[in-house]
Amino acid sequence: MSNVLEFAIIVKKFREVVMAVAGLKDILEIKDGTVSIKDKTTLKKLMDTLIYTAVFEDNEEKRKNFFLFIKEIAKACGVIPSSIQGLYEEMGREYPGFTVPAINIRGLTYDVARAIFRKAIEKDVAALIFEIARSEIGYTKQRPLEYATVILAAAVAEGFEYPIFIQGDHFQLVRKHFLKEPNAEFNYVKGLISEAIDAEFYNIDIDSSTLVDLEKPTIKEQQRPNFENTVALAEFIRNIQPKGIDISIGGEIGEIGSKNSTPEEARAYLDGFKEIFRGSKGLSKLSVQTGTSHGGVCLPDGTLANVKIDFDTLKIISDVVRNEYGLSGCVQHGASTLPEDAFDMFPKTNTSEVHLATGFQNIIYDSKYLPEDFRRQVYSFIKEEYINEKKENQSEEQFIYSIRKKGFGPVKKKWWDLPSSIKNPIMGELESKFGLLFEKLNVINTTGIIKRNINPVIVKKTFDIDKLELL
Question: Residue 31 forms beta bridges with which residues?
Fold first, then answer.
């Protein structure tokens, strides 16, 4: 992008901010720290500018206040961060015939979330999750408070007024760190959980499957470090969750990309968890490995290898955890790069949740609407910045594919500053994909079941409006 164009964008954004601030007094009121909305229609139009200003505010204290302010605006509009626990308890009693999509957004988060909400409104979808993993929080430069606020702002802008499920995905104990300094690694994950819950992530997936020791003589002993650490983190979550909210907690028995899980492993893990867990509610779901890997498998020529999921195993374990333990069912990771005809199988195998990320990233990067010079700039940056991560046997295409997920965070502002003439058609491509997935996962017309099973609880967050210098 030329310097002249970048300067023009800065001037345009400044004017938008001035106009937005000038208009806030007419569309909302703040009394005793509580936000009330006077003009929701105008507010929706201003949300683009408000969230952009918050995300790219340099002063950290002001930035945090801005995020908290926007979140309270969202709650006043009926957009409330919630736990999906009630729905998953219903799934544990009787499977409703759909699989909840859990969507990780790595870049252009506000625009992508708006596209999701537009399609969700069109298809009457409310059973969906927005999530971000421990690793993604780092390389996409999206701390929990920012991620949650951007999602809520997108919902306000599109007029989506159902509970919003925001999830910490793969809040993982990294094996090499844990083996070296177990207390430090455990405390790091506890700190991340605390940060996420404070940001109103009311759905947390604990992943200590990395600690499974297959050299132990019995399956239960193999799973012991997994379920013991899951219990410790689950009890920590129960102790700090807000009053009136039961956070949905997920467990995992098979590290994604490793050997396929078995019913015996599921039973050993859940029995071990049940024996030592001290809390009112345990796990709501169980992630298993059935043949996928995160991001798919890129071949030397840059194409993706065909992946075969063991759907029989997925159904067997889903039925085991539902019928014997009352969980919602199994969770499938690494699914977004599967062929489209595979997604019908998740509801048919009683899968409760499926995680989707890389496929959406691929649509953005590979879109014909993304200017080639911009794509080349991003690729040049990541090749230079992350060259030490290139494996000896990787082709250039494989390296780019494996690393381009890290091309969103460091140059986030350049992505956000792309003109609407570029972003809108890309979002149109994504909307088509979201619509297809909603239909295949059978989550269309799920607003009714969400209303019946989810009672949103507003957790009021305090902000200092004076520090924002807005009103």
Answer: 34
